[in-house]
Amino acid sequence: MRARTLIVFSCLIGLLAVELLIFARYSPAKHASAAWSRADVSAPCVVNYQLNQWSNGFTAQVQITNNAMASSSWTLTWTFAGNQQVTSAWNAQVTQNGTAVSANNLSYNGSLPAGGSVQFGFQATFTGSNQIPTNFALNGTSCGGNPTTTPTPSVTPITPTPTVSPSPTSTPVMSCSGATFCDNFENQTGTTPSGVWQVTFPNCQGTGTVTVDHTVAHSGSTSIRVDGHNGYCNHALFATQSAFTGVGPDLFVRFFVRHTTALPTGHVAFLTMQDANDGGNDLRFGGQNGALQWNRQSDDATLPAQSPAGVALSTPLPTNQWECLEFEVNETQGSMRTWLNGTEVAGLHLDNVPTPDIDAQWLQNRPNWRPSLTNLRLGWESYSGGDDTLWFDDVAVGSQLISCA
Questions:
Q1: Is the pLDDT of residue 165 over 60?
Q2: Would you say residue 297 lies in a domain?
Q3: 224 and 366: one domain?
Q4: Co-location of 190 and 266 in the same domain
Q5: Does residue 36 or residue 227 have the better pLDDT?
Q6: 324: in domain
């Protein structure tokens, strides 16, 4: 009997020990400590928003740092406080509905590991104030608090070293070997371009002017001068409908340009071509963020992307000296190449292989872009820039690369 009592007592002691272990492991005090630890970790995501702003537009370079679980795709959402309107983007597909904006990864940058970062950017317009968004959420989870910001521009305009050239004098007229269309403007005798060229002021007319100049020329003694001013109505160009006649689908254009003011931070253009396959909208060549760029009017896609890496792959257009610009547009392949003084510009190369910071955005928006160009216009269009005085000379078009010499 005594032995049986000892066995029962031992069993009771064992059960009590198990209960104590369970209570120690799952006590309320331990729960409170775990909740405090979870609340102490950093925010699930951090957004760095770098702003580069001008009078009525801006670019934003956005970096997302993921402090949560790894993800194979990502979506960043936010809401604008004003009337900001996204016009284009790079390294992300950015859509907008009212003030709500959503940025989704592209095929090559969807992986976002824990602790990892990814960058994308966009361009937008605005009027009034341009407040930085504060309600960013990554994959539906709020990043919390305010984003970190960089007050200085994320893209520093490329400023060429000013070159002062002596006053141009008359030189032998340049050869047009290999060109289907060629004009050195030596046949212009009046004060306004005539013949195959017609002065045009798209949309409305302001104070911009186009004149024949017999004092400044690249070759010969005549050029076309354009005095361009800031503002939409100050667009001033001279155009020809015959430049591309009989050339074929692979177009090469060469022209010389001399201008007085460095390309601004905002968007400007000095050459446009209407595209019959894009509703008559323009394919535009000019500059932004201090460097040369291509721009598609219908969706504001740019080549290169206006990211810091993209702008760095382009080049400024030096001032106060004649520069030779050449480009190819292959309408069948939907490709483009561009040369400055015989050297190809890496950031202005469009092919059918999306390259981040160059043509990924262009192809993402319109993967089957196939232009049909109908005219050639030279001059000045300012969307967010300023004044500039430009001279154009020795324009040539053909079906092969035309020499600058």
A1: no
A2: yes
A3: yes
A4: yes
A5: 227
A6: yes
Residue type at 151 in one-letter notation: P
* Distance in angstroms (rounded) separating the CA atoms of residues 203 and 116: 48
Residue 176 lies in a domain: no
Is residue 392, in this structure, part of any structural domain at all?
Answer: yes
pLDDT higher for 29 or 211? 211
Q: Contact, 160 vs 291, CB < 8 A?
A: no
Q: How many CA atoms lie within 13 A of 153 on its CB side?
A: 18
How many CA atoms lie within 13 Å of 172's alpha carbon, on the beta-carbon side? 4
Indicate whether 232 and 352 sit together in one domain.
yes
* pTM of structure: 0.77
Is 374 within 8 Å of 319 (Cβ atoms)? Answer: no
Give the residue from 289, 285, 262 showing the smallest Cα distance to 53: 289
Tens digits of per-residue pLDDT, 350-404? Answer: 998 999 999 998 998 899 999 999 999 999 999 877 899 999 999 999 999 998 9
Together in a domain, 233 and 351: yes
Contact of 366 with 299, CB cutoff 8 Å: yes
Does 203 share its domain with 101? Answer: no
* Domain of 83, in residue numbers: 45-150
Cα–Cα distance between 366 and 26 in angstroms, integer? Answer: 59
Contact assessment for residue 46 and residue 143, using Cβ atoms and an 8 Å cutoff = yes
Question: How many CB atoms neighbour CB 260 within 10 A?
Answer: 13
Q: Tell me the C-alpha distance between 131 and 108, whole Å.
A: 31
